[in-house]
Amino acid sequence: MKGKLLKILVSISFLFFSTSVFAAGKLNLYNWADYTPEDLIEKFEKETGISVTVDTYDSNETLLAKLQAGGGSTGYDLAVPSQHFVEIMIKEGLIEKVDGIKDMSNYKYVAEQFQGPSFDPNQDYSTPWQMGSASWAYRADSYSGNGSSMMEFFKPSDEVCGKVAVFKSPEEVVNMAHLALGSSFCSEDPNEMQAVMDLLIEQKKCVAVYSSEGINERLMSGEVIMHAHWDGYSQVGKWEGVDDLTYAYPKEGVVGWFDSLVMPKGAKNVEEAKAFMNFVMHPENMAMLSNFAAYANAIPESSKYLSDDMKNATNIQVPDGIPVKFGQACNKESQALIDKVWTKLMQ
Amino acid sequence: MNIQGENKTQNRILSLLPLWIVIGIFMIGPLLVMAVVSLMESNVYGGVHFKFSLSGYRQILFDTNLFDEIEFNPAYLIIIARSFMLALAATFLSLLIGFPAAYFISRQSDRVKNILIFLVTIPFWTNLLIRTFAWIIILGKGGVIESSFNFFGLLDEESSLNLMYTNSAILIGLVYSYLPLMVLPIYASMEKMDLRLLEAATDLYSNRIELIRKIILPLSMPGIIGGSILVFVPCLGAFIAPDLLGGGKKLLLGSLIQFQFSYARNWPFGAAMAMFLLALVILVLIFNARLNRKHREYANQK
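Above: the input entities. Below: the structure tokens describing the complete assembly.
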């Protein structure tokens, strides 16, 4: 009995010993699924000796709920929310101020228009990750439309009715409906929201599934022909074999987003997190991100390191004259309306 | 003698203490947190304001319309009713399949019995999520079922059976997931059954239907009730199968609660819903206890 206990203690102490020898530090990154290139993490670990653990989530809302519930003890050192959620997290005191982002050696590479963005004007909290848009994509081999109007998605023709799929979360779907109807995001006008609801209920008759996961697989099998999608992810789908997958840039516009690295409250490995923030802003590393997830970024010089595939990625090139409208943090009133619309839709 | 007796009680209380602590911390604790959250005011970006409010519970039945008047809102009741119907249907189907299966297993030789029971429990070795994903591959377009139809020329390449994203797909998923929980308790009560009763009944010219109705069914009743509860309760709160196989087109209790904590950011309402679900489950359990008692009285009378 005693011998067994001793063995256990010895092996536990070995565990501590080994981690302290091999790693100069640790970093816990909480990121969207399919969004963190492995080679980038390996490169960072090699350069700094910091060992990185990556954990994933599926939506801004999940991340927010986790930070709210964790109350400063989530154990994560970095997370990657979109622009409006950075704003919410600052307001709710869920993320740490990071000293000296502007003095980081790679900050100079950030394009001027993305320095001090509206959600973080003094660059106190965040550094850029990737950016892109939400709209919908279709298989051009089975659909005769050309994706020029949002209404093709919300009022599907007989050709695709029953083979349409929509995101599972209300936020982007409601925003896309706003674009289609010409009303503004986070509307507090009950009449406008009524119109949004009518549109979504009408669309539901043709919807096969509401899901934000396995989008490319569903399109590849032909289960659906039209799917709410993200620009970069649809490009990845194209690379992976859905050759005719075309991302729609409707004349009404697309819903834009801009993801940033932020440090959740109570982060333990502050220096390691800052090292990672700086590391990612280097053009070569930023290009690795884009080459992997196929999204655009805020570091112009990274274009030198982009793969040929990425340079020719048609789904992520925004055509001239197509507006990109960024999602906003809605207030309580408009959030309540969005919830009502979604509950009614799913009732 | 007396002192010894006291010591025994003391010992029993002391030895059960760890159990009570574990139950207290890991079961009652979280439930209390939920109960408290359900009585707070919601914060627009998630979390709660520490202010007493019954709005979470009120929202289950009532809603404010555009003119700020309070009106009855059936939306959530519809969702609750749907969950109930689905859980009932899944329980009924599991019973329909599970009862004969359990009977069949209990009639085998000991060796075969053990192997069959072992096979019944095998699915539990794999995560529920993965097993449900497997059904997507089976039911989906170009999946196992469709491609075998194709192979035998019953279906041409272009058309589809449209098995996925339907209520039947949800039902298949639920029944598949929880069937073992129906088979095992029924099997347990059939195992104990005195076979001589069946022989006696046949000797007295009872036919097969009477045999099942008058002997097998009453004697395996405890197992049937137990199995039905074990299937019904998790089905009531299920959200993996409805989400993955049903296409997430209609909310159920489980997905409604999840929705409140993530997208809708209305924790008090989500917590109130969870307490409501808990109350439903407790009601079902009370009903079950009464059924069991009645059954025991009935058995004693005989």
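Note for the figure: Chain A has 13 helices and ten strands.
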